[in-house]
Write a structure and sequence with these properties.
alpha/beta; OB fold (Dihydrolipoamide Acetyltransferase, E2P); Rossmann fold; 6-stranded parallel β-sheet; globular; binds adenosine-5'-diphosphate; binds magnesium ion
């Protein structure tokens, strides 16, 4: 057996071998170092194992017991039940999915540690627990007071036969046979000041802690390193931006802007006026603008962006206005083409919806400078699109795009100004972390006359009543959306889908209503027709998937019903809700949940119904879910956070920023340990960029 080094391929770890080693590498676990970075999800120890007769309802708990009985239960929904027993009692473990799989998996007499929230449903039960099969010896380890790591089990890892227990065998072996220590790039003075362990101790402490406290101190050290990497990227971008100078310049706002404001059917709100001033003032500066415009759904960001585009046009500059969906790009174009033409500004629309000849012709026209404002989707970044004098790049719903896409559009100009927009307001800590290199403008009011949207959630047994309610509402007041999580029936998950629902409801309860359907697989042309009809009031009920989530604007729609609301994140629910309440009439959202509800899902729904403020929703979503999914951290070129928690590790975030300020202040004069940290951070960030495909 060779010495294990951090860079040794995993195949040299006992029990892995070449074939499995290759498979692991394909899942991103190539070396010993990679596996050490794979962190436990939680831990088993005697202190958190509860005897079954002492379980309390509502509590998170781990129990250890033996399978006494197991089997499928039939009913309204099929489910799989396992009775787990210890010396003090028994509890039911319950699964509502993958029933066949569990049937093959369980055998009487197996021993498991199960972790989850205890509920009461004709006796104690845990729905979808975290499960860890124990052998006698692990069982003994726990009872001897050891703390044992439980690793996240992904489908990919299970497929190659690597359970949490399997990973534990590997990490145990590695930590026993590793012949070198993890190099520590954090200067000694820093971890002393911050009271953090060395990297090596943190890694071994996070896998095999000797106490609960050691888990937390180890985690904090790893979290600090993550935050440092994250902030490094932000600081670096900031530096680049501050030193850039643009080639174009702006005169004072002129006639066209004045005219278009007169054409608007409304007055700008004071929030809109404030951010417009901020943006215009940026445009007049010599360094290019990098500004994030944020504001709750429906607050009216589009008009502000269009004013900026028009200001660019007045100064003989072109503007690219990119939106994440065709529906949205088309809507912007349709709404603004007329008013813009009235003040002598040409605009056009480019989406993948057009024929390739059409696209090329628009690309060419734009390259010749004949289009002032080009609206479009991702299609804007393709090579056949060029600009003669691109001065302003606007990106709507920017969290839907990756850095690469933004970068490509940006590169079509010579230091253009950049305005990105989001309706998912970003909590301050996160804004600092992710967008520390952007200035932020916030619209903090809504157009006058908007009524708060009434939101309720119901379990799905109320569906017949809710459908009846839709009928009544659209007969009397206006139009409705019904949102589904799926396009069509799926074998994998048991969810309502829009196609079946459409077939069923249009011949029953919605028989005499005008119903339309859109989803991602409806042909663009047909979809446009449906949406146009909906906007014109020729359709009463629009049945749809979440393709309408982003930005769709129909002020006459006053009711939205969301099926399987438990499947959506808070921010997404709030986005969906933003499709109604856009006019002056009272709007209602009914979220339908399908049981059994996890705790988190229930909290989410309660919060959603009780709270209409996008900023608070975003904070809550961050706490419930972590930032990854929400803000596209994964595709943004920033490292993914495994150990850090942006809500509770604010002190570490501040500390990492302080350290970076020092590094960036005078990189040339740094002491050796600090210089090598700086270099290390640079190299790792370059490697990440490479992995992302050279964005
Ligand atoms: P979002 O900020 O979500 O992108 P939009 O720009 O789509 O919001 O605007 C939502 C709706 O509000 C649109 O119908 C728009 O015409 C309208 N609107 C925008 N500003 C005002 C205003 N100052 N007064 C009244 N209505 C406005
Ligand atoms: Mg919008």
């Amino acid at each position: 057996m060779p010495d294990l080094k951090l860079d040794s391929p995993l195949q040299y770890v006992k029990g892995v071998g070449p074939k499995r080693g290759e498979e692991l590498a394909r899942h991103g676990l190539a070396t010993v170092r990679d596996l050490l970075a794979y962190l436990p999800r939680h831990y088993l120890d005697r202190t958190n194992v509860v005897p079954i007769n002492r379980l309390r309802i509502g509590e998170m708990a781990t129990i250890i017991g033996e399978v006494k009985a197991h089997g499928i239960l039939h009913g309204k929904r099929q489910r799989y039940e396992v009775m787990l027993q210890d010396e003090t009692g028994a509890i039911a473990l319950m699964w509502f999915a993958a029933v066949r799989y569990w049937e093959r998996y369980f055998k009487k007499g197996m021993v498991f540690a199960a972790t989850g929230r205890v509920t009461d449903f004709m006796g104690l039960q845990i729905v979808h627990p975290d499960l860890e099969r124990l052998e006698e010896n692990t069982d003994r380890m726990i009872h001897a007071g050891r703390i044992i790591p439980v690793y996240p089990q992904t489908a990919a890892l299970s497929k190659i036969g690597l359970s949490s227990k399997g990973i534990r065998q590997l990490t145990t072996f590695i930590l026993e046979h590793l012949s070198e220590r993890m190099p520590d790039h954090l200067p000694v003075k820093e971890h002393q000041d911050l009271n953090l362990p060395t990297l090596h101790d943190a890694i071994s402490g996070i896998h095999y802690p000797r106490s609960r406290e050691e888990i937390e101190t180890s985690r904090r050290r790893l979290a600090f390193d993550e935050l440092l990497g994250l902030q490094y990227v932000v600081f670096q971008n900031l530096g680049k931006k501050r030193s850039a100078v643009k080639k174009h310049s702006y005169a004072e706002p002129g006639q066209k802007l004045k005219q278009i404001k007169e054409l608007l059917p409304f007055e700008l709100t004071s929030g809109q006026k404030k951010v417009t001033r901020e943006i215009f003032s940026d445009l007049q500066q010599q360094t290019p603008m990098s500004r994030l415009l944020q504001g709750d759904v429906g607050c009216g960001k589009t008009v502000v962006a269009v004013l900026a585009a028009l200001y660019a046009a007045e100064n003989n500059l072109q503007c690219a206005f990119m939106a994440p969906t065709e529906i949205l790009a088309e809507q912007h174009f349709r709404n603004w083409r007329g008013p813009l033409a009235n003040v002598g500004v040409t605009s056009d629309l480019l989406t993948s919806n057009l024929t390739s000849a059409q696209r090329k012709s628009i690309g060419k026209k734009c390259g010749e400078g004949k289009i002032d404002i080009l609206f479009g989707t991702h299609a804007l970044i393709y090579d056949y699109v060029s600009f003669e004098r691109l001065g302003l790049v606007i990106i709507d719903e920017q969290h839907r795009f990756g850095v690469e896409q933004r970068g490509k559009l940006f590169a079509k100009g010579d230091s253009p100004d950049l305005l990105v927009m989001t309706a998912t307001p970003i909590p301050r800590t996160l804004a600092l972390t992710l967008y520390g290199d952007l200035d932020i403008s916030t619209i903090d009011d809504l157009p006058p006359g908007r009524k708060p949207i009434r939101t309720v959630w119901r379990m799905d047994d109320a569906r017949p009543k809710i459908l009846e309610y839709i009928r009544e509402q659209v007969k009397e007041h206006g139009q409705a959306y019904v949102i589904y999580p799926l396009i069509e029936k799926s074998d994998q998950v048991d969810l309502e889908n829009v196609e079946d629902a459409y077939k069923e409801l249009t011949v029953s309860i919605f028989r005499d209503l005008r119903v339309g359907m859109v989803h991602g697989r409806v042909k663009p042309k047909e979809r446009d027709e449906v949406l146009t009809q909906f906007r014109q009031g020729k359709i009463d009920v629009l049945m749809s998937t979440t393709v309408i989530e982003v930005g769709l604007d129909n002020p006459n729609a006053t009711l939205m019903v969301i099926e399987h609301a438990e499947r959506f994140g808070l921010a997404q629910l709030h986005q969906l809700r933003g499709r109604v309440g856009r006019g002056e009439k009272q709007s209602t959202v009914v979220a339908i949940a399908h049981g059994p509800l996890s705790d988190i899902a229930q909290q989410r729904l309660e919060y959603f119904a009780a709270n209409g403020n996008g900023f608070q929703i975003a904070e809550a979503d961050l706490q419930l879910r972590g930032p990854g999914e929400l803000f596209g951290v994964r595709q943004s070129g920033l490292p993914e956070l495994r150990a850090a928690n942006l809500t509770s590790d604010r002190d570490l975030l501040e500390a990492s920023r302080k350290l970076l300020e020092r590094l960036f202040d005078k990189p040339a004069n740094l002491d050796k340990p600090y210089r090598s940290l700086y270099q290390y951070l640079r190299t790792s960030s370059e490697q990440r960029q490479l992995q992302l495909g050279g964005g």
